[in-house]
Amino acid sequence: MKAKEKDRLLQSAISRHCNTWIKLDDARILRRAEKTLHRWAEMECNAEIYEKEGAIWRKGPGFRVGGKWIEPKAEKIPNKERGALQRVVDVCTHYGLFSYHQTDPRGCSLYVSKEKIDHSNYYHGVACN
To answer: Would residue 104 count as lying in a domain?
Structure first.
């Protein structure tokens, strides 16, 4: 399925579930933010990224040279989670929707609903994947 079709499906699902018609571009923003949040959660789960001294760092893979283990080098990276969450807040605020960021990478990372949702009822919202 192409990205534009997925955007239309999300737009339609939000329209039905939340009784709110959102623009296709805004559905795309929500779907892409979900993908960013999902990748971020996977990296956190695999301990590839961590926070130190107020910055986000990514640890590359270690490797062996001969019989010696070479420790991975860390590099400072931008916090993509923060930007994705801000885009979600902007879209949801515009339409009077609520969002929930589910941080477990085994499922959808973003849900929206007309009603307030949290960890106990997020599955009642629309999955933005």
So the answer is: yes
How many CB atoms are closer than 10 A to CB 28? 18
Q: Is residue 70 part of a domain?
A: no
Q: How many domains does the chain have?
A: 1
Residue 54 lies in a domain: no
* Cα distance between residue 127 and residue 129, in whole Å: 6
List all residues 6 or more positions away from 69 whose beta carbon is below 8 Å from its beta carbon.
62, 63
pTM, 2 dp: 0.86
Show the domain range for 20. 3-45+79-127
Q: What is the pLDDT of residues 86-120, one digit of tens each?
A: 999 999 999 999 999 999 999 999 999 999 999 99
Residue type, 110: L
Q: What are the structure tokens assigned to 108, written together?
A: 């959808």
- 114, 20 in Cβ contact below 8 A? yes
Residue 55 in tokens: 């910055």
Cα 5 versus chain centre, distance: 19
Which of 44, 37, 21 minimizes the C-alpha distance to 128? Answer: 37
Let me know if residue 91 belongs to a domain. yes
